[in-house]
Amino acid sequence: MPGPDPLLPLPPALEQLLVIRRWLELTLARVDERIAAVRAADAENARRRPLPEPPQWWIEYGIGVRRTPERVHTGDCPVSTRGRPATAQGVREILLTVPDVVACPLCRPDSELGLLDT
């Protein structure tokens, strides 16, 4: 028979041990209920949090090793599926200096940047 546990002295009587076991079960059930409530509250808070604003400008890159810029978009354009957010200055620079880069014909970022007037 193992010796007494110095960290958690328990009574030797069966009835007392059963009472302690029941108390622990009830306490564990309360803790589980609280965990579920906190998780539900966290999920509700996450659901209520507003979505981040889309980027104002978007640069679409090609597929392959070089992944060079191919097309530029406004941030809310539904056509762009791959790329990175960009600044207006970055989009303007790419449109003016990188050969073969086109402005999306649907969202017309070149028009919004005033590049058609120059």
From TrEMBL:
InterPro entries found in the cross-reference section: DUF6233
Keyword tags: Plasmid
Name used for this protein in its record: DUF6233 domain-containing protein
Native species: Streptomyces yangpuensis
